[in-house]
Design a protein that fits this description.
alpha+beta; 7-stranded mixed beta barrel; 2 helices; disordered C terminus
Length: 220
């Protein structure tokens, strides 16, 4: 283990301790740990998706993940997407396939997720959940990505709200912050480290700061 690895490991431990102190101060329980190998908690990176702005995002074999996002990926309207609290977006291959089976022309990357994940039970995940992606990267879910008209071409009759957390809980894309930087590659293991807290009743937890992008066919 080199000095950089040690720094990243210490950073991840520090983030965990800070989170637990904050939760204790607020009278909240620590995020529940997940038993190693529990059903639905281990999967893999099916695809890494990047673009220079807009959708679809296209596949790459590997990429470097930083606290500002994935190197080589851009958003046309950063006020609506991206930034440290929305650095990497995730979506489940199984949800994509389920939605496609309903007749929607959705594909991996077509709704703008950076990482398409296979084998993880998406219903387990909520804001506060943490995932290890490959041997280096650790992500923490910060919120559900609210769909907008940018991605309507992935849906029959443009019904992009099909993947809204408000409409179909547990079938939304997820935003994450980066706790530990590093490289990821297609085929890397994805492990759920702990689970977060479900939004309170009546609150979807969806995140899309600033409203709807000015051009419905651009962004993400």
């Amino acid at each position: 283990m080199n000095a950089s690895d040690v720094r990243d490991a210490l950073s991840a431990v520090t983030e965990d301790l800070v989170d637990r102190v904050k939760r204790a101060a607020q009278g909240r329980a620590p995020a529940p740990r997940v038993a190693e190998g529990a059903p639905g908690t281990v999967g893999s990176v099916f695809r890494i998706n990047l673009s220079q702005g807009g959708v679809p995002k296209l596949p790459v074999a590997e990429a470097r993940v930083t606290r500002d996002g994935i190197v080589g990926d851009r958003q046309r309207y950063p006020v609506f997407h991206g930034g440290p609290e929305r650095a990497v977006s995730l979506y489940a291959l199984e949800v994509i396939e389920r939605v496609r089976a309903e007749g929607h022309p959705i594909e991996p990357g077509s709704t703008g997720e950076n990482v398409t994940v296979a084998g993880v039970d998406w219903r387990l995940l909520a804001p506060g959940s943490r995932l290890a992606v490959g041997p280096e990267v650790v992500l923490e879910i910060t919120g559900y990505a609210a769909p907008c008209a940018t991605i309507k071409s992935s849906f029959a009759d443009g019904r992009f709200k099909r993947i809204s957390q408000k409409v179909n809980p547990g079938e939304s894309r997820l935003y994450t912050r980066v706790l530990s930087e590093g490289r990821i590659a297609a085929g890397d293991e994805v492990r759920v480290l702990d689970v977060g807290e479900r939004p309170e009743a009546g609150h979807s937890g969806e995140t899309l700061s600033g409203g709807t992008p000015p051009a419905a066919t651009e962004s993400v």
